Amino acid sequence: MxxxxxxxxxxxxxxxxxxxxxxxxxxSTTSRWTTPGHQERPxxxxxxxxxxxxxxxxxxxxxxxxxxxxxxxTIVILGVGLNAKPDLTLETWAHQKAIERLESQRLAASxxxxxx
Length: 116
Fold this sequence. Notes:
The protein is mainly alpha-helical. Helix content is 59%, strand content 0%. The relative contact order is 0.03.
C-alpha cells in the first residue's frame, strides 16, 4: 500500500496556494466587480432594468430582432425537414420486404391455380 505522505504533502501545497489566492483577492483593491457605479444588490426587475413609463413601449436592442427571426426560421426548417425525411428504419425495411414476399407468394399461388 502506498504511503500517505505524498498525498498529504500535495494537499498541504494546494491548501497553501488556495488560501494565499483568497487573501490576495480579498484585499482592498478594486476589481471589475466592485468598481464604483455597480449596484450592490439587484433591484428586483428582470435583468436589472427598470420598466418604461406606462403607455411607452420597451425599446428593442439591436441583437433581439436577428435572434428572434433566426430562432423562428430554425424551428420552421427543422419542423419541415424532420417531417419530410425518409423513413430508413430497419422495421420499415423489413415490413416492405415481408409485403413483397407475401405478394410474390400470392402471385405464384394464383398462377399455379390458373394453370391447373
